[in-house]
Design brief:
- Helices cover 33% and strands 15% of the residues.
- The protein contains 10 helices and 10 strands.
- It has helices spanning 64-71, 86-89, 105-121, 135-147, 175-182, 203-210, 218-222, 226-237, 269-277, 302-323; strands spanning 44-49, 78-79, 84-85, 92-97, 125-130, 151-155, 191-195, 214-217, 242-247, 284-290.
- The strands form 2 sheets. Strands 4-1-5-10-9-6-7-8 form an 8-stranded parallel beta sheet, with helices on both faces.
- Helix 1 (64-71) crosses helix 10 and helix 4 (135-147) runs parallel beside helix 5 (175-182).
- It is globular and about 55 Å long.
């Protein structure tokens, strides 16, 4: 005889049924999950950070959270390759946007850190929709306040390890340098993958390696099977707390044109998603998808849809890991 307490409970939160109302109706949230401010009963909180003051070339990632939410409306619960009902396993909410201060990166990073820390202390995994990549410094501060120095798995065309840009300390090319110097990021437990494009000199990637990061260029990443990538990640992280950051510019601009600093010869969508899926056993404390700039997207919202599906893949690996 089975006791009621032995029966798995249904997730408290999930998308509205598309059988009851069209997907284009209602208030726009990520994957049509409910918007809540009280995180009780949530496993994952999707939050936006509409900030792009740190952008160096194309503006517009401040509209990224809205664009990704728009691109997420066709997402469905069941993930066939991982054989997991994502929203039947995880209680997922859209918690809206964190507070930001346009034009003030230092203040915004403080606000992000406070917001992310509050989500984590509520026992909830944050999935952040950016925003330019400056915001990852605030995220890492929030995670480190709860878990200690973080290991980072980064999929990105750029290493983001400069100390300053245009003489400013906080920009989308500098967050990892500051995160290491502040002690919130452990470079010896971090892997930066997907780097490509022209550089100012060999020091651009050499400096990242000298700081202790392991760096894989796009060519090296392509030559690595997803299963081998997963083993490399596990060895690198060493079982410590880990964060995954996905910059949409790791994808080739033929598929994701709407980003601030596009670089040709990037990953194909199925390649990037295969690398994400390979990390299904890693207990990440949080995720982000950044650098989506909707003003540069095409009429089909290709970049926004890809970003939304990457975010869904991150939810899927979290769901699969919990269900295992």
């Amino acid at each position: 005889m089975t006791n009621a307490s032995d029966t798995p409970s249904e997730p408290q939160y999930g998308p509205a049924s598309a059988a009851l109302a069209p997907r284009y109706s209602g208030v726009r949230t990520f994957a049509r999950c409910p918007h809540v401010s009280d995180l009780a009963g949530a496993d994952v909180a999707v939050v936006g950070v509409p900030f792009d003051t740190g952008t160096s070339y194309r503006p517009g990632p401040r509209f990224g959270p809205d664009g990704i939410r728009a691109g997420s409306q066709l997402l469905r619960p069941y993930h066939p390759p991982l054989d997991i009902d994502v929203f039947g396993t995880l209680s997922v909410v859209d918690a809206g946007d964190l507070a930001v201060t346009s034009g003030n990166a230092a203040r915004t990073l403080e606000q992000i850190a406070q917001g992310v820390e509050a989500i984590l202390r509520a026992g909830v995994v944050p999935l952040v929709l950016g925003g330019d990549h400056t915001i990852v410094l605030g995220e890492l501060r929030g995670h480190a306040a709860v878990h200690g120095p973080m290991g980072l798995i980064l999929l990105d065309a750029h290493a983001d390890t400069w100390d300053a840009y245009f003489g400013e300390p906080y920009a989308h090319g500098t967050p990892l340098w500051h995160a290491v110097k502040e002690g919130v990021l452990d470079p010896h437990r971090s892997l930066l993958a997907g780097m490509r494009g022209s550089l100012y000199g060999p020091h651009n990637l050499g400096d990242a390696r000298a700081m202790g990061f392991e760096v894989l260029t796009t060519e090296e990443l392509r030559a690595t099977a997803p299963a081998d990538f997963a083993r490399l990640v596990a060895e690198r992280l060493g079982g410590g707390p880990a964060f995954l950051s996905f910059d949409i510019d790791v994808l080739d601009p033929a598929f994701a044109p709407a980003t601030g600093t596009p670089e040709v010869c990037g990953l194909l969508p199925h390649e990037a998603i295969a690398f994400v899926r390979s990390l299904v056993d890693v207990p990440f404390t949080g995720f982000d998808v950044v650098e989506v700039s909707p003003p540069y997207d095409n009429a089909s919202q290709t970049t926004a849809m890809l970003a939304a599906n990457v975010a869904y893949e991150l939810l899927a690996i979290e769901a699969k890991r919990r269900a295992s």
